[in-house]
Q: What sequence folds into this?
């Protein structure tokens, strides 16, 4: 795997790169390399202009924030390039990310959560080359928008200033060599609550009892071997070819996302569950539920009417807010499939469960869906991908746990990480064995995989 | 700092000049892509349009030459994309299409007109009424979508009969309108096609991503692609995805109202910052030119240092590359609020 053969991941090794961020020489060096080493029969003048544009955010700056005001809330985000995430099959996924002031990390990067009307400071500390933060869907002036070619890349430090205007679901990400940086993990969730805080989706909008921010991502481990500015010197580094192999909801995939307490939901009949969805990959995603859910808002802008649906296709970077108001006890399976951006074929999937307990409530629900009736899909005629039979995915199929009865203790549902059933344990063992066989150093690898169990338990703790 | 880089493809340069001549003569309903100039007319008219199915080379943003097939208004030249046809409801179109290549090709607009195969050397004249107000993709229906992907495509825009600056009768008013045709070039497929080969969708791996025939440094310095306006001067953006990849058009700075899908009403009223564009689709969106809502302090408190210049790019980020790298020389445009 390319990721393992690259000894120095995450470097910014262009010749002429000054420690102070001055990069005129680096820019010239990139053009020189492009037009000599990497030219490949291309018109040199055109190629030089393209390289100059690719390096236009340079030289990077760390300027003061214009009209800096006293913030209502401040977030600190520091770049790291040595993230490692242990996946369900024992693989260690190398990634980058934003770390907060408490050194918290993860996929996605730590949440930014603010309220309408708040003046927000997001303080970026760049490391290992220039970065930016673009708050996607948040619309400030160009200086605070985090786009190099309309402002600047941040060499060491910059404080982005903006004021949250509209409640909704957003995200933030780096906008430097974005194709690479976002795919390697430089993204995190962003929520704007109404002034009243969490519990209401927007002012006068639906209220909810349970909330999940599900970030669907897909990972091509071969990209982890690329360096910070891969491709700006005209080399073909394959950034137009993304072939993901791992498919996650937040930081879990395979069997792990099914009942992880931070991902899966346990609720009672009559309660409202809010699902904030983000497609953090570059291929479209198809989300499906085996119950009707209400689609109420997208990209931080509520709809006039809610729509009941069971299937939703999302383009990269879109967000949708969905509500489930279960009337009956049972289990609702939620699945996110990554579809190839050209063929529409299923590349892989991740799943989780919503477990509903309590007494069945009488039908029809009094206010469900809000806004009434309506077509079955916000893209009824526009879904280019047929929903029916998902072709056998190349990705590992998550093990399905045996259906089980929800445990009700008194009035409260205790949401504890349950012990995996014998069937699950056997399946996991079988899967790990098969994996180990596939690998060459079978012994070492399978040992590492077995060690993973307690680690998974630790990470499953509730924050 | 790169200067505004001129497109150096000789074929295209010639095409553009010819194009203007045709428009000036009033002989055809061709208009330029990007910013669209439109003079409302009271009466329906008849237009005779000559198109030639041609082949040649186009130069990509990084100086690579790729083989293309196009609908060109001039025999012997290439035009990527094919000329924009700007008509009004009640107009009659007479499109004469001559196939100058050695294999059959055609001309079709889904649900409106289909020439069927046009044999090499043959000319077919299509006569049809302008379709209802909206944005349409025209393409070669032969071996779809692969000839389309080689460049045999363009856009037809029908303005409403009432002569207003609206996308459809009763629709919201705009100050300016733009047509953006997006395209994915797979240079390997282009080379295979030059030699007469075929391909499948599974084999298509695009390496160039264009908007009105340009990418990255070229498209952001193209004044017709860049959207300009003052506050509260809404722009209508007609997006035509002639490629096969699903794009995610992300506007920084303002959310847009998605009005039409494939020249029909959008199924739901949506205000989006990212629009899904499946291959072969058209969507019309209104960019409101509102003060960007999350600015702090408010616009009035800023001086000359305030810049309101934003990108619109595809968030399927593979499309932000050229030749496998060179971010952000892909499907990218700028829009600017002038003060």
A:
């Amino acid at each position: 795997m390319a990721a393992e053969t690259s000894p120095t991941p995450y470097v910014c090794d262009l010749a002429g790169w000054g420690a102070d961020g001055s990069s005129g020489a680096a820019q010239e060096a990139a053009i020189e390399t492009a037009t000599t080493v990497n030219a490949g029969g291309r018109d040199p003048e055109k190629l030089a202009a393209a390289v100059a544009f690719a390096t236009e955010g340079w030289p990077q700056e760390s300027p003061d924030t214009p009209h800096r005001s006293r913030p209502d809330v401040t977030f600190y985000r520091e770049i790291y390039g040595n993230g490692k995430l242990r996946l369900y099959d024992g693989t260690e996924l190398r990634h980058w990310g934003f770390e907060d002031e408490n050194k918290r990390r993860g996929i996605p990067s730590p949440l930014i959560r603010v309220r309408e009307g708040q003046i927000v400071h997001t303080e970026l500390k760049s490391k290992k080359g220039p970065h930016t933060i673009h708050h996607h869907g948040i619309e400030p002036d160009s200086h605070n928008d985090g786009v190099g070619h309309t402002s600047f890349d941040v060499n060491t430090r910059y404080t982005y200033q903006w004021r949250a205007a509209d409640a909704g679901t957003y995200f933030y990400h780096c906008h430097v060599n974005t194709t690479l940086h976002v795919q390697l993990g430089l993204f995190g969730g962003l929520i704007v609550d109404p002034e009243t805080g969490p519990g209401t989706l927007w002012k006068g909008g639906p209220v909810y009892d349970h909330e999940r921010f599900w970030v669907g991502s897909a990972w091509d481990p071969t990209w982890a071997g690329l360096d910070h500015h891969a491709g700006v010197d005209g080399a073909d580094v394959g950034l137009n070819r993304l072939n993901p192999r791992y498919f996650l909801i937040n930081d879990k995939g395979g069997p792990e996302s099914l009942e992880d307490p931070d991902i899966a939901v346990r609720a009672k009949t009559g309660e409202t569950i809010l699902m904030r969805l983000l497609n953090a990959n570059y291929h479209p995603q198809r989300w499906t539920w085996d119950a009707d859910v209400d689609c109420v808002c997208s990209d931080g802008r509520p709809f006039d009417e809610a729509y009941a649906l069971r299937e939703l296709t999302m383009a990269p970077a879109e967000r949708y807010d969905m509500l489930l108001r279960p009337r009956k006890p049972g289990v609702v399976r939620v699945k996110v499939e990554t579809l190839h951006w050209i063929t529409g074929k299923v590349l892989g999937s991740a799943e989780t469960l919503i477990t509903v307990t309590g007494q069945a409530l009488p039908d029809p629900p009094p206010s469900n869906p809000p806004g009434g009736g309506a077509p079955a899909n916000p893209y009824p005629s526009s879904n280019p991908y047929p929903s029916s039979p998902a072709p056998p995915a190349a990705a590992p199929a998550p093990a399905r746990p045996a259906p089980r009865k929800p445990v009700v203790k008194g009035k409260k549902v205790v949401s504890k990480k349950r012990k995996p059933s014998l069937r699950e344990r056997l399946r996991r063992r079988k899967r790990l064995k098969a994996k180990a066989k596939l690998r060459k150093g079978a012994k070492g690898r399978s040992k590492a995989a077995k060690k993973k169990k307690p680690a998974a338990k630790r990470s499953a703790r509730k924050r | 700092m790169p200067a505004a880089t001129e497109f150096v493809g000789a074929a295209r340069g010639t095409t553009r000049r010819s194009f203007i001549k045709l428009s000036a003569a009033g002989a055809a309903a061709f208009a330029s892509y990007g910013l669209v100039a439109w003079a409302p007319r009271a009466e329906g008219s008849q237009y005779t349009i000559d198109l030639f199915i041609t082949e040649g080379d186009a130069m990509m943003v990084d100086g690579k030459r790729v083989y293309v097939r196009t609908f060109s208004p001039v025999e012997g030249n290439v035009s990527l994309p094919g000329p924009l046809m700007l008509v009004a409801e009640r107009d009659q179109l007479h499109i004469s299409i001559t196939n100058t290549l050695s294999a059959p090709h055609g001309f079709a607009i889904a649900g409106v007109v289909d020439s069927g195969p046009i044999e090499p050397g043959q000319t077919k004249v299509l006569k049809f009424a302008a379709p209802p107000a909206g944005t349409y993709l025209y393409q070669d229906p032969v071996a779809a979508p692969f000839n389309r992907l080689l460049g045999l495509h363009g856009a037809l825009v029908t303005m409403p009969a009432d002569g207003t600056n609206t996308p459809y009768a009763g629709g919201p008013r705009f100050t300016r309108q733009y047509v953006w045709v997006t395209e994915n070039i797979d240079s390997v497929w282009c080379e295979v096609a030059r030699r007469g080969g075929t391909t499948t969708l599974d084999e298509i791996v695009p390496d160039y991503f264009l908007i009105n025939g340009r990418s990255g440094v070229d498209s952001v310095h193209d004044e017709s692609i860049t959207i300009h306006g003052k506050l509260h001067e809404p722009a209508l953006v007609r997006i035509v995805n002639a490629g096969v990849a699903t794009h995610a058009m992300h506007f920084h700075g303002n959310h847009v109202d998605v009005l039409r899908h494939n020249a029909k009403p959008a199924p739901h009223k949506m205000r989006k910052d990212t629009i899904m564009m499946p291959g072969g689709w058209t969507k019309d969106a209104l960019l409101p030119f509102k003060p960007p809502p999350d600015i702090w302090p408010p616009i009035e408190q800023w001086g000359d240092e305030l810049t309101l210049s934003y990108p619109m790019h595809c968030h399927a980020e593979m499309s932000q590359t050229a030749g496998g790298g060179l971010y952000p020389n892909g499907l990218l445009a700028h829009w600017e609020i002038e003060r």
User: Anything to note?
Assistant: Chain A touches chain B through 88 residues (CB under 8 Å). Residues 35 and 42 of chain A are 8 Å apart (CA to CA). The radius of gyration of chain A is 23 Å.
